[in-house]
Amino acid sequence: MITFKRLDHFHICVPPERLDEAKDFYTKVIGLELIDRPDHLFSSPGYWLNIGNVQLHIGVEEALPRSIRHTALEVTDADAALKHLQQP
Known about the structure:
The chain has about 90 residues and is α+β, with helices and mostly antiparallel strands.
């Protein structure tokens, strides 16, 4: 049996031309904190962000024609989250 301590990070991919748009969404709209990423270790661009005690890693890959990939985040107040996302 494996005993897990916690989730360390999750990784999502966006098309290269939408990387900065994704960073802006997660930092400016959602309000996540951008953190240092050791870019010298990677051959492609990306961003790392804090989300609670877990990290979100955003990388790039070419867009797929269709995908069911998704990430689900639980919030403490769904109504407040919805209200925040509906702000202009």
